[in-house]
Structures are given as structure tokens and as C-alpha cells.
Write a structure and sequence with these properties.
α1 links the parallel β1 and β2. This protein is an alpha/beta fold. α1 packs parallel to α6 and α3 packs across α4. The strands form four sheets. Strands 3-2-1-4 form a four-stranded parallel beta sheet. A two-stranded parallel sheet has the order 5-9. A two-stranded parallel sheet has the order 6-8. The protein contains eleven helices and ten strands. The N and C termini lie far apart (51 Å).
Amino acid sequence: MSNIFITSASGHIGTPLVPLLLKSALTNNIVLPTTNLPRREARVPKSDRITILDGSIQNPAWVEEKFQKYNISTIFLCLTGVDELFTTCNFLSALVRSVCMLQQSKVFREEGRTYTILGPSLFFTNDLRGKETMMGPMDVYGEPIGTKGVSRVDVEDIALVVVKVAEDPKKWDGRKVMVGSKRVYTEHDFGRYWSEALGKPIQVAPNNRQGLDQLEMHVSKGINPMWARDIRLMYELFGKMAFALTDEEYETQKELLGKEPNDYEEFAKKTGAEWIKELVTMK
């Protein structure tokens, strides 16, 4: 059985991941670091197999000490943000210096430890931040996707992949597994799906300077300017080329999941119905 260290446990992936791990025979103890103890305690299930630690993963000495204290054997490292690179490097340094058996970085392969890298496509849940602009008078889907197309992924599928890899780490050692839909979706698809889901015409933000400027301004106000520019650059790339899985990557994902990945169109239908129900209830 494993003692599992998870970063971002109340984030998009962590929220479905923790309950899945609690159901797995793999799990002995789940260790969750946080810098906001009340929020983390409120957002994760109550279980005697969950240990919540008050501390920052940006402190490599703290990370080293916790790896050793809790005899960590499996790690799910998920980081985003402006300090992602520095935090990742320091985190991996802490792994090197710890005495535990770990499953994250190639530097451990010589000692029999394993690592697997996951490459998810664009999250379904990104669309949730567009609720106000789609449900309000603007009637706009604010993600400037463009016409080339992007793969989409349900965070529940990512969480399931994490569990499957942790249960059979040697099989997936040294591999990168892409996770997402075979189909790529364009701005036309997003406009059609959300128009049908909400019962009114939804326009999609254009993948041009105006649309990208608006996206960057919105993210800058909501998060910070550095993160906003990074997001803009990603969407500029979407305007130039498709973000898609190869046939081989898709089949590998299906093997690991044991099923077809969840369907984006069904997500839009279900989410739209929930939003409409909320609006009716408020009235």
C-alpha cells in the first residue's frame, strides 16, 4: 500500500482524484500540503486516511522533511502559475535528497523508481469561468479558440489516469500519456454546443488581436498579468495549429482508462441545464 503525496488537492484534478484514491486498494495514507488549512479541510473528504499538512511546497526543506516523516512512496505533482518552474525544480531537488521511494522524476530510474508524465488537453472545466458572459446579456463564449481545433478533456478522466498509473507504475514507467478527446473542437463547435445547451445564440470570442487582448485583460484582472500573458500565448498558438492527440496517443489513453474518454458535448448539455435550473430557482 502507498502513502501518496498530492499537490493541488482541491484543484480541478485533485477534487475528483482524492475520492478515487480513497476507493483504491493502493492507498494507505493521502498526504495533502496546503497554505490555507481551513479551505483545504472544507474541500476534501473526511477520512482517517487523509493527512492535511500546513506548509508550502515552495519550501524544499519542508518538502524533504515531510517525505521522510510520512514515508511517501507515490507523488502526484501538479503545478501551474508564474512560479511553476522554480517550484518544480526545488520540489524535484527535495525528492532527490529524500530517502523515500518515489515515482516522479527520471533521476530516480537508476534506483528502481518510476515516473510517468501526463499530457492533458484543454479542460472541460475551463468553460465554467465563462458562466457569467454566457448566461448574462453578453451571450459570449470568451475563449478565443479559433478554427484549427483543440482536444478537450474531463478532469475526472485525468484523475482516473493518475490512479491507474499509480496502481501499475512499472507498466507506465518512463512514458508520457496524453489525455483528451480524439476529436478537435473549433469555435464553430463551441458556439453550436453552448447555443443548444442554453437555448439562445452564443457568440465565440474571435481568435484575433481584439479577442486575445480581451482574454489577457480578463485573466490579468482575475489572476495576474504574468499568468495572463502565458494564457494569451497559448491561445495564439491554438489560432495557428490544431491541438490534437495522435491515433497512437488516443489508443494508449483508452487502454489506460479502460474506456472511451468522457464526451465534451455531453458536458456542455449537462452544464447548460444546471445553469438554467439555477436561474429559474433564483427567480
